[in-house]
Amino acid sequence: MKLLLVEDEPLLRNALLSYLTTAGFRCEVASDYATAHEKIHLYEYDAVLLDLTLPGGTGLDLLRAIKAHGARAGVLILTARDALADKLTGLELGADDYLTKPFHLAEVAARLRAVLRRRHPDGQPALHYGALVVDAAGTTATVADTAVALTRKELELLTYFLTNPGRVLTKENLAEHAWGDAIDAADSFDFLYTHLKNLRRKLRAAGCELNLRTLYGLGYQLLPPAPDSTP
Amino acid sequence: MKLLARQNRYYVAITLILFALGSAAMFAGIDLISRAELDEDLQVDADRLSRLAGAGLVIAVPGDRQPVTPFLAVAQPAPAGLCDTILPDPAESGELTPYRQLTTQVLTPAGPRWLVVRRSLLESDDVGLITTVVMLSVMGLLLALLLLVNRWLSRRLWAPLNATLRAVAAYDGAQPLHLPATDTDEFTQLNAALTQMSSRVAREMETLRQFTENAAHETQTPLAILRAGLDQLGQVPDLPPAAWPPLTDAQAGVRRLSRLMQSLTLLSKIENGQFSSIAPLAPVEITPLVTIQLDHLADFMADKRLRLTTELAPCRLPLPAALAESLVGNLLQNAIKHNVPGGMINVATGPAGLMVRNTGPTPVTAPEHFFERFRKHDPTTDSPGLGLAIVAQIARVYGLSLTYTFAPDANQHVLRVGTLAAVSAATRT
User: Fold this and answer.
1) By CA distance, what is A88's nearest residue in B?
2) Which of A8, B34, B175, B349 could share a disulfide with B315, CB 3.0–4.6 Å?
3) How far off is chain B from A63, nearest CA to CA, in Å?
4) A129 contact partners, CB below 8 Å, separation of at least 6
5) Using one digit for the tens of pLDDT, what is the confidence trace for A81-140?
6) Percent with pLDDT over 70 in chain B
7) CA of B317 vs chain A CAs: smallest distance (Å)
């Protein structure tokens, strides 16, 4: 998967580059409007990660250029501005999704995968983990062609783990992914434990052992499936 | 009390006192003059009759004992000289009426006699009364006219002040005041001072707003770097467990700061009216938002073992959709966050608005400070206390009523949001 990372802040750009490269994306970077504009015209990308405030122009203009160029790249907007108008304009202009700073790197990866699955269903139609398959839309989970009845939150957590395999995901990161800003109402993230326990129990009953490592006080890490659970 | 009414009250009071004093003085004056006149007449009568009596003429018709008929007596009937007396008046069927009488000694051919002449005081009293009544009516009319003229004049003269007062009352601090021009110097000065003052307030508010917005905006990128850095730190292979707690603490700190900045940005945007320009203000259906949010928050309620009861009916509030969501979200999150384990939440919607009732610890804050920014109602939580400030700001800008009450016996906090019209309708019934 070829990705163009347009972000003017070097520290953030490096963090994104490092995380996404490890996640298996082939990344190119652009730190200003002109460079990004040139690269879009010269090369084909599967997805563009686009910061809205750039030296030399706005990300929205760049988005217009991408669409005018007829590029098939999916666009994920990164913005420090949580101006509703900018988000709406971005989506109207054809952006696939947006993320507000500060974001978790795992969230960027998950959103990028979702954008790519929607844009290029032929490329990566589904998420696999041993015998477990989660469909491209992230709405159904099946183990050996048998549907597993999961709640929406359980599915969201599962998809998040599957799009960030091997990564340590903190409880806060997981909670924010599935519940969003509503987690402000929670006193702690301990309720995650119940949801993950249920998820594992349901998958185990269906014949898939989720090899989830618990790092007490920190979070969880999805390790590759143990050899016995692969078909 | 209005300035005009206050002024009129003084006018009327002073005029009435003056009227009373004037009427008394006038009555006394008229009385004095008419008595002097009367006394003079009596003296003339007595002189004339004395001369007649001295010549031996009969001066009174026998049998005609009208009080005003002069008569001669041998014994002294009354002290010599002028005095007032009361006698039955045959013409008035014997009613006692006041008279002025003069008793004087005359020498008649038959010897010394006492001559008594009288005149009725009734007429002079009547004259005094009529004069006073006429004067009072004229003065009363004058007063009424004066008040009317004053009223008309005041309205005319004070009209610019009233316009200024209305403008100041409606002043929200966001824009400088625009006051109508006036040709009265004092009002022109007042308006100039107010315009200058309001411009300064507006300028300072705008500076503060921009500062808040910029500060919040500029904080998001460093926060993003911080969060990404912490994410990467978490991925370091074989990170020693001793590093885990500080890492999660740092992440929690980033999250809190980020939420704080988002809230501040939102507050400044609501203040700035930035939401009205995005969408026209059609009333938003609140009840579906409540249902969605409650579903979203179900896990947190279950985690705290809260009992939820709802009474949901259609409810519409005139708000931009994004803010309606924020309003509902903040109210419900607040009810969960500041609840006690095993407590209750009751959410009711209806034509009058939205009501959220929840159990919780007794507030340490007085109700009037409940919606202030950074006011912590519950020292045990890490919430910066902006949720209710946002709710209050939305209510203020979009003309909704917002009330908070605490029922100590049930330890229940009640928050109500509604349209002002619905509230006044409820108080009418």
Assistant:
1) B278
2) B349
3) 21
4) A162, A165, A208, A210, A222, A225
5) 665 666 777 788 888 998 888 899 999 999 998 888 887 766 666 888 988 999 877 788
6) 91
7) 20
